Amino acid sequence: MGDGKFLVRLIISSIISLIGVGIFITGIWVHITAGKAYIAVLSARVVTHLIMIPIQVIVMFALRKLLKPAFEKFLY
Questions:
Q1: Residue 22 belongs to what H/E stretch?
Q2: Which CA distances in Å does 29 have to 22, 35, 74?
Q3: Which of 1, 37, 60, 73 sits between 20 and 30 A of 7, alpha carbons compared?
Q4: What residues make up the domain containing 29?
Q5: Residues 5 and 59: beta-carbon distance below 8 Å
Q6: Distance from C-alpha of 2 to C-alpha of 72, rounded to nearest angstrom
Q7: How far separated are the first and last CA of the chain, in Å rounded?
Q8: Per-residue pLDDT of the chain (76 residues; tens, 9 = 90+)
Q9: Contact 6/64 with Cβ under 8 angstroms?
Q10: DSSP state of 33
Q11: DSSP state of 21
Q12: Contact between residue 23 and residue 46 where contact means Cβ atoms under 8 Å apart
């Protein structure tokens, strides 16, 4: 798989993961268990997760570049 196609898939999966699970589902869970106001929990999580999306994409892309030779050598 080419780097461009992998990067697009990585960005989409990071957005789905961080926004869908990290913000909404975890936010609802904190609201249920701690009784905090959902909007207050949501506003704090949105900022941190929007900052984390590019960081996660960069780290995962770099790890793929770093580990690709080892995968090709031992798995294929």
A1: none
A2: 10, 9, 41
A3: 73
A4: 3-75
A5: no
A6: 14
A7: 14
A8: 678 899 999 999 999 998 888 888 888 888 888 887 878 778 888 888 889 999 999 999 999 999 989 888 887 6
A9: yes
A10: H
A11: I
A12: yes
CB 48 within 8 A of CB 18: no
Rounded to the nearest 10 degrees, the angle between the axes of helix 38-75 and helix 3-15 is 150
**In angstroms, rounded to a whole number, what is the distance separating the alpha carbons of residues 7 and 54?**
11
**CB burial of residue 49 (10 Å; 0-12, 13-18, 19+):** buried
Q: Could you tell me the two tokens for 24?
A: 């909404």
- The domain total for the chain is 1
Calpha distance 7→34 (Å, rounded): 37
Residues 53/59/65/69 CA torsion (nearest 10 deg) = -130
Residue labelled with tokens 């268990």:
33
